[in-house]
Structures are given as structure tokens and as C-alpha cells.
């Protein structure tokens, strides 16, 4: 009998009775308090004695914090698939990834017809369910820019917009008993969800065999499909039948079902809170322990490490997949895995890595790095995957994704020091710090990862008041090229800390940083649109206005390429870092005098309202190119050069960021980042270096001094001098000390000295 190696989970199967409207909610809360993983509910929309299950699910999700909710199972004939998909994604987003989609093909057809549904034969019901699954998954595929088209016999969509993307990969579980439904489960679903009370002896074995055969024919591993089981019974002193007896009997019988019939999720039907409590607190832990002990003796391979033939065929040369450390195997993602589409790309750059490792501790990062070094493929390290210049993805290599290292922890002691995991995002940081009256200057988009920005620069919307992000990094925890876990601070390895503050991922894998946050209760966020017909004049006047403004004001200007027949416009994003709205208004009014103002909106808000939590799902975009340069002032010559570039059509995105003020308070050699006299950063994105570079090099570059590592993709070796200036010789010495073999060479590699 099979054991598919799935982690065990336990839940409740609650009657959605509305006689006492809040009792089903209370039972779900009891389930959560007892440590159960799931709260599931029947779905009979034609039954007036029951709550509407979808409404109940949303209410329960709002009244709980950890438990996953699901219909058991939802009646598809009365729920339109595309709408159901969006409803499911919304509930998953609102609950933080705590929704599972149980589906049924339909039953009780007289009642379904009575509610306006269409009667189907059993075979038609299976066909309709298969079409619905295709539509639902298509709606969830938000990274696919093509409209969704499915022409089914019973369900169709014709150009539906995709999205939203759920918070996690929502599993689809099917209530199935007959062969056609079981085969659909094997080819298209994530789980089989029957009820033990409806089954005869041997039905689990026969059902597993049908599902396994269908899965293997589809190139899937049978272990991908979770086997769930609705169970019922009574906890009592004497044995009187299956699951009718003492706790010890329940433990024995559920352990046998797990090990011999492959069941990995048990949902207990019944509305008695005491039984639910005993199920969660006594039975579930004991079954987990017994199954883990037996699996260890048998050498059972975890389900996450088993892959079907279709996935195995996509493995890449140069990677020893069987050697992935055990601590990382369960979360590792390969081509062919469902999560691969969400992890292969970064924000702008498309990728096809052969393996993505997702460590959750610094020790696991060290294991991942040691494993990756032993493979004959490129290495990428990713915190958020947003960097324009970054190579946090690759083709055929290993990517170490740090998203699970995402804690945000205020530290005791003097100052407002915060320890932040490298895989956290700045939107999450802003949200966590706002209630404390604190903020950290951190770019302009909340989906950016902490690790990249906090080690490369950090030209953000609080920059003129507080400086760069790296200026406030006081310590870092690092996994070195040789696998050591070290601390970099003023007291420990100060040379490493100096290099990390500007050299990005050249020196090690940063797992967390300690940053001194700044007191900030609120900001004024402004959005302006200007007529940019006189592009050079507008840029020059805007630059002068920014330099004359108080340090609280930081402004970014986005210049749209000039297109025939369209008005040239420029957009400003500006933050006044303080809650003195009168002072903010005065500063913004002076900024508005830079040109003909077409639109202006301003809001008083916390910083978390500006840098909002962003989606990590990145769809890539090919291989975009970017050029950057820093300037002391946006003088007339610089403004004309940038305006000429905009008029050329060689760039599709142009931006100038103010980076003066506090960013210039440090000496050029205080950090590896040396640019401490320039007040503005110029950036242009194009489609190819062949198209962009000649104009940039001849028109714009003569007016610039230095480049910004995070945004530039021109990795010619001579550009390192532009990036690090007089600091480059010292940085090469630090590189030799910490990465002499140049392990970290994916992005603007710094050659070790000597």
C-alpha cells in the first residue's frame, strides 16, 4: 500500500447550519485553538437551513488567524468558474494564503435545477469540472499577459483578463468516487477528497490506483496529489467499530490509513467542540509522531522530493538534483514544478534557472551556497528580484532565493535599531515601522527586497533628509564564500561592513542587516504632471527648485519619451519627509513653479502609504538595458543632453532622482559607495545596448560623473571605476580577503586584488 510522503494535516468538517448563526464560526475558532490546520464546510446552496458557504468562509477567515478554510466541497454547477476563481484569489489575499478550493461536479440535481442550474449527466459533470479547472487556473495565472480564452462544451471564457494572483498556490481538491472523476483528479487536481462513510473496503486502494495511473500518464508524480479523507466517529472508552473507541484506537487507525492508504489529511466531521479539541490536541500530534517514526525507519522519501516524468525531463545539465541537501529539498523548485513560473523571472529580466533553493535560516543559506558551488552552472542570489541590473535569475543555473528570511525585529538598546531579514520587502518594513513612528529610506517601490538595496545604495524618497539606505546600516549577518557565518560591524570585520555598504552581492550572501531607523510620524506625498514641451527648460528649473528646497523634500522626475502627435509631459513623485503640512505646501508650491502644471495631487499619509507592500510575482520582460550617471546639478547643458536623449526614441523610460542633501554628508571613502558630491541620478532604459549606448556615451555621459550600480546594466570592466571611483583599489583588497575565488561574480563582478 502506498505512502506518498506528504506532510500530515488535520481539520474539521463543520455543518454550516444557520439555526444558531454563529455556531459554525465558533467551531472553526475552536478548531484553530486546538491546533487543527483546516476548517471545512459543506456546500449546499439549495438548502435554506444552511449558511451560504462562501459567505461563511469569508466570515470565518476574518475571525481566525492561522487556520485554512475550504468548502468541502463547493457545488460547481451553481458557481460560475471565472467568478469563483476571482473570489478564491481575493479570499486568499485577504486571509494571507489561508484558502483551499474543494470542488465537486455536482449532485442532488433536482435541487440544483430548482435553483436555476443546468442538469448534467455524470459524464457531462466531469467534463464541465475539467473545463472549470482550466478556467480557474487561467484566471490565477496573473503573470500571463495574454487574455484567457477557453472554449468548453459547458464553460467558456473569451478574452477574460487574468488575475488577481492569489497569495499562495491555492490547491484544488476534488470530491471524487467514480473512475472518470478519479482520472481527472490524477491529471488536473492537487488532491482527492472523499468521505470514508461513503466508501467500501478497498475503495481507497482502488481509487489511489486509478489516480496514480492517470497522474503517471500525464507525466506527474502521484505524490503531487494529496489524499484527503473526511472521517467521522466517536471518542469513547470502549472499542465499538472503526473510529469508535478511545484515543489510542484513533491514533492506531489513522496511522494505518496514512501509512497503508496514503491519506495525508484527515478532516473530522462533527460539531462537538470537545471532540474537535481532543482531535487537535491529542490525536493529531500522536499520529504525526507515529507516522514520522515509521517513515524514518522505512526511509520514506518526502513527497516534495518526488517528481513526475514530465518534470524530470526538464532538469538541466550540470546540476546534481539528487544531491540537494535534505534541509532544502522540500522547498526546492525545479522547471516543471507549479511554483516555477513564480520564481524563474525577476522584475524586468526573464530567466530559466535549473533550480531555485529557498533556505529559511542562515545555516541553510550556507548549505545552499556549498551545494551551488559544487554545481557546474551559474549562481544567482535573490532577495526581492527587483534590481534593474541584477542577475538574481539566470539560464540553467542555481538561484538562492532568500524570501523566507523576512523577519523584521526591533532591537533593544540605544537608538532605534531594526534587524531585517534580507528577504523582507521594503513595503513590509514600512508597514511594520509605521506604528512605531519610524521609517527607513528605501527607494520608491515596496516590492523591492531589503538585501539588494541595503548593500548597494538606496536612493529613495526620504534621501535628501536621511541619506542613502546604506548610510544607516550598522551591521550585517553574512554567509561568506567558504560557507562561514560571520557578522560585519564596526567591531567585527569592519572592512567587510565597509565593502557591503555599496558593493552589493560581491562579498557574500547577506542574510540580515541591522539598520538605524529614523523618527518619522508622517509625510506629504505629491504627484505632479507638467507640460514638458520645453523639456530642457523644465528639467533645469526643476533641478534648481529641488536644490533650493529644504532637505525634507525629495523629488523624482519621470520623463515620457516624446511621441509624434502627443503632448510631452513629465511626472513628479515628491515626498516631504515630515508632518508639517504648511511647510510642505510652501515647498511644493515652489516646486510647482518649475513649469506649466497640468495636474497636482497631494496627500498627508504615513510613509507606509508611499512605499506600499508590493507583489513578489515577477513576469520578466526579456533582457532590458539601462544606463545611469550622476551629476552635481541639472544645469543647462545636462538638461539639454537628457532632453535630446528623450527626443531620440532610444530610451522608453527616463528618470532623474534627487540624491543630494543628507546623502552628501558622508565622506567619499566612508562607504564603498563613493558618490558623495553629486545631487542627481540620471537613468534611461532601452531595448538594446546597441541602440542606447551610442547616444548615452556621446550625448549624456560627458556630463556625468559615476554610475549607480543598482540600475546600470553596462558591465564592461572599465565601468567599475565609474561605480566605485577611488574606492576600487581598497574594495579589490576586501574582495581578495572575503571572496578570493570570485564566487560572487554574477553582477558587476569586482576582480580580487592581485
Protein architecture, described:
The protein is α/β, with parallel strands linked by helices and 754 residues long. Among the domains are: 9-303, Luciferase-like domain (TIM Barrel, Alpha-Beta Barrel), CATH 3.20.20; 523-729, 3-Layer(aba) Sandwich (Vanillyl-alcohol Oxidase, Chain A, domain 3), CATH 3.40.462.20. The chain contains 24 helices and 30 strands. Strand 8, helix 6 (179-188) and strand 9 form a beta-alpha-beta unit. Helix 3 crosses helix 5. The longest helix has 26 residues, at 273-298. The chain starts with 8 loop residues before the first strand and ends in a 16-residue tail after the last helix.
CATH architecture of the domain at 9-303: Alpha-Beta Barrel
CATH class identity of the domain at 9-303: Alpha Beta
What is the helix tally?
24
- Please state the CA-atom Rg, rounded to the nearest Å: 29 Å
Tell me the span between the first and last alpha carbons. Answer: 62 Å
Q: Please, what is the average pLDDT? A: 95
Stretches with pLDDT under 50, minimum 5 residues: none
- Give me the CATH fold name of the domain at 9-303: TIM Barrel
Task: Describe the largest sheet.
Answer: 8 strands, parallel, barrel
CATH homology superfamily of the domain at 9-303: Luciferase-like domain
Which percent range describes the beta-strand content?
15-25%
Query: What overall form do the CA principal axes indicate?
Result: globular
Amino acid at each position: 500500500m502506498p505512502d506518498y510522503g506528504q506532510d500530515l494535516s488535520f481539520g474539521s468538517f463543520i455543518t454550516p447550519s444557520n439555526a444558531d448563526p454563529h455556531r459554525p464560526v465558533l467551531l472553526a475558532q475552536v478548531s484553530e485553538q486546538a491546533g487543527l490546520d483546516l476548517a471545512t464546510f459543506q456546500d449546499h446552496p439549495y438548502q435554506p437551513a444552511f449558511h451560504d458557504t462562501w459567505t461563511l468562509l469569508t466570515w470565518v477567515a476574518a475571525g481566525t488567524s492561522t487556520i485554512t478554510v475550504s468548502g468541502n466541497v463547493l457545488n460547481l454547477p451553481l458557481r460560475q468558474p471565472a467568478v469563483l476563481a476571482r473570489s478564491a484569489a481575493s479570499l486568499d489575499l485577504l486571509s494571507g494564503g489561508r484558502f483551499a478550493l474543494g470542488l465537486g461536479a455536482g449532485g442532488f440535481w433536482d435541487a440544483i435545477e430548482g435553483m436555476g442550474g443546468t442538469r448534467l449527466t455524470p459524464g457531462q459533470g466531469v467534463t464541465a469540472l475539467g473545463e472549470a479547472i482550466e478556467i480557474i487556473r487561467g484566471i490565477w495565472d496573473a503573470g500571463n499577459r495574454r487574455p484567457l480564452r477557453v472554449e468548453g462544451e459547458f464553460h467558456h471564457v473569451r478574452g477574460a483578463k487574468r488575475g488577481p494572483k492569489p497569495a499562495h498556490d491555492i490547491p484544488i481538491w476534488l470530491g471524487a468516487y467514480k473512475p472518470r472523476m478519479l482520472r481527472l483528479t490524477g491529471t488536473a487536481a492537487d488532491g482527492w477528497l472523499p468521505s470514508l462513510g461513503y466508501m467500501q473496503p478497498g475503495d481507497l486502494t482502488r481509487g489511489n490506483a486509478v489516480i496514480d495511473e492517470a497522474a503517471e500518464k500525464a507525466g506527474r508524480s502521484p505524490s503531487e496529489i494529496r489524499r484527503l479523507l473526511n472521517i467521522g466517529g466517536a471518542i469513547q472508552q470502549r472499542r465499538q467499530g472503526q473510529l469508535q473507541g478511545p484515543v489510542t484506537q484513533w491514533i492506531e487507525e489513522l496511522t494505518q490509513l496514512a501509512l497503508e492508504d496514503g491519506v495525508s489529511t484527515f478532516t473530522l466531521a462533527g460539531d462537538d467542540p470537545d471532540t474537535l479539541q481532543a482531535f487537535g490536541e491529542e490525536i493529531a500530534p500522536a499520529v504525526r509522531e507515529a507516522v514520522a517514526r515509521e517513515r524514518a525507519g522505512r526511509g520514506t522519501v518526502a513527497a516534495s522530493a518526488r517528481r513526475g516524468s514530465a518534470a524530470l525531463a526538464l532538469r538541466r545539465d550540470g546540476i546534481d538534483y539528487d544531491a540537494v541537501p535534505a534541509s532544502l529539498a522540500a522547498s526546492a523548485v525545479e522547471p516543471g514544478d507549479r511554483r516555477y513560473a513564480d520564481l524563474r523571472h525577476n522584475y524586468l529580466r526573464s530567466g530559466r534557472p535549473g533550480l531555485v533553493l529557498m533556505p529559511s535560516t542562515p545555516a541553510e543559506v550556507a548549505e545552499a551556497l556549498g551545494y551551488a558551488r559544487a554545481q557546474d552552472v551559474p549562481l544567482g542570489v535573490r532577495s526581492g528580484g527587483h534590481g534593474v541590473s541584477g542577475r538574481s535569475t539566470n539560464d540553467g543555473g542555481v538561484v538562492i532565493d532568500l524570501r523566507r528570511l523576512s523577519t523584521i525585529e526591533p532591537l533593544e538598546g540605544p537608538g532605534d535599531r531594526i534587524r531585517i531579514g534580507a528577504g523582507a520587502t521594503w513595503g513590509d518594513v514600512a508597514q511594520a515601522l509605521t506604528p512605531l513612528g519610524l521609517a527607513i529610506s528605501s527607494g520608491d517601490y515596496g516590492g523591492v527586497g531589503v538585501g539588494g538595496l541595503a548593500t548597494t545604495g538606496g536612493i529613495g524618497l526620504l534621501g535628501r533628509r536621511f541619506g542613502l539606505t546604506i548610510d544607516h546600516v550598522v551591521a550585517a549577518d553574512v554567509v561568506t564564500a567558504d560557507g562561514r557565518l560571520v557578522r560585519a560591524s564596526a567591531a567585527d570585520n569592519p572592512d567587510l561592513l565597509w565593502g557591503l555598504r555599496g558593493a552589493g552581492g560581491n562579498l557574500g550572501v547577506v542574510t540580515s542587516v541591522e539598520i538605524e531607523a529614523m523618527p518619522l510620524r508622517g509625510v506629504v506625498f505629491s504627484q505632479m504632471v507638467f507640460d514638458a514641451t520645453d523639456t530642457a527648460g523644465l528639467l533645469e528649473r526643476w533641478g534648481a527648485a529641488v536644490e533650493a528646497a529644504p532637505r525634507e523634500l525629495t523629488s523624482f522626475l519621470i520623463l515620457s519619451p516624446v511621441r509624434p502627435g502627443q503632448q510631452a509631459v513629465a511626472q513628479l513623485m515628491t515626498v516631504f519627509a515630515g508632518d508639517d503640512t504648511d511647510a510642505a505646501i510652501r515647498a511644493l508650491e515652489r516646486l510647482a513653479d518649475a513649469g506649466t502644471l497640468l495636474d497636482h495631487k497631494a496627500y498627508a499619509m504615513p510613509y507606509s502609504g508611499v512605499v506600499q507592500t508590493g507583489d513578489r510575482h515577477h513576469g520578466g520582460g526579456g533582457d532590458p538595458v539601462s544606463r545611469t550617471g550622476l551629476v552635481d546639478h541639472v544645469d543647462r547643458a545636462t538638461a539639454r543632453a537628457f532632453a535630446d536623449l528623450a527626443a531620440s526614441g532610444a530610451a522608453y523610460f527616463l528618470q532623474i532622482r534627487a540624491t543630494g542633501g543628507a546623502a552628501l554628508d558622508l565622506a567619499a571613502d566612508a562607504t564603498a559607495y563613493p558618490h558623495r558630491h553629486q545631487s542627481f541620478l540620471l537613468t534611461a532604459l532601452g531595448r538594446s545596448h546597441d541602440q542606447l549606448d551610442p547616444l548615452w556615451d556621446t550625448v549624456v555621459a560627458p556630463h556625468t560623473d559615476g554610475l549607480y550600480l543598482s540600475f546600470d546594466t553596462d558591465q564592461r570592466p572599465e565601468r567599475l571605476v565609474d561605480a566605485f571611483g577611488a574606492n576600487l583599489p581598497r574594495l579589490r583588497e576586501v574582495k581578495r580577503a572575503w571572496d578570493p575565488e570570485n564566487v560572487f561574480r554574477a553582477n558587476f563582478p569586482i576582480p580580487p586584488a592581485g
